[in-house]
Amino acid sequence: MIVSDNERAVFHYAFKPLVRDFCTIPHDGGFSVTLYPDHSLLVTLYYDNDRPRGQIRYSVPAAVVTHMQEIVDSAGSWIGGISTELKLKEGEQPRFVSRIGLEGYPLLVCEDIPWLTRRPFLDADGRAARRLTSLLEDASEAMAPSGILLGFEGFDVDIKRTFIISNNDGQDPWLGVSGF
Question: pTM of the entire structure?
Answer without folding.
Answer: 0.84
